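Q: What structure does this chain adopt?
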Amino acid sequence: MLQLTSLQPTLNRWQARLFFFLQERFGVTLFMRFQEDNEVSQKKFIDSYEDIFYHIMNVDMCRMNAYTDVATNRTLCGDKTFVDIGTGMYLTLTKLLLKGGVAHVHAIEANKESYKKALEECKCMERVAQDKITLHQSLSTEITFNQRVDGIIHEIVGRIASNEGMPYVIADAQERFLVPNGLVIPKLVETLMVPIEEPSIGFVGRLMSWFGFESKPELKQGLQVIYNPTKQIRLSNVAEVVESFVCGPSAPPMREQLVQTKRISFSIDRTGNFCGFLLGCRVVTHENSPVINALDQITSWGTVFVRILETPRTLSKGTKIDVDFHVDASTITPNYFIAVSLEDSKLAEVKWSGPLN
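A:
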């Protein structure tokens, strides 16, 4: 008789497909709560990754199409050496690079269980592929190489782009691993913001509380994850960039991009009951590749609802909302600050730290 543990990967694959099927086929909105701790250690965050999360990422077609397009590009990646930061249980990005004809990949994974499964995955590959992979069980910030590599690939992008410590990690990797003007995939990672009304949840979404999702939006000031929020809750037709991290020969070193402050102004496009903002990541793997936009697409990232007001405030069309957004990603644990003003009067402030789980 098959043991339950042997069935778990299959169950996880079906759960991952169900996760996207409900959103894409029936328009279901799902809510998740962040951990109660204001600050989650990087190690705790990394160790929280389980098999189900990798399956959800690997059936995310927005994510996979964008990375596949660039990683399998032989003109761009062929015969080059790469570091894959956070390779995961299934060596997903490393396998794509091998299809692109790379010379060698140093695949780094800090999660011990994921590393063990990655070793097993590697052993099932053809010998010629195995010889092109060196697996490392470590944080990328704690490892050294004798020779620099031609490229870095990663998907350590958070729901808020920087909240998994990506800018700090890539700054370190650029300085210690990469040849001058080397390739970094993705080339652009940023966070978009838009003001919203109270998000709602339907009947099917409430039923998903059986699977660990929330049955209703959080009513107190703070943060909550929302998958597939309806566009009808947006109070502005234009989303604004609040943080942006660029990699490439013409971009400044990531070390110079770690601390950012943006002051932006939204114009309300219709009368509505403002309560906060929706944030989502935007990822450009390469200039000619499909763009990932978590605000407009159904992705494994979902979006982040930052509740500013516990009691929504009615705003008329044309009202201006001013926002000061500050991120300090100079450590592995980024710090954030949002100050919101309405008609020259202070409305609210919210602070938090990442990584957010």
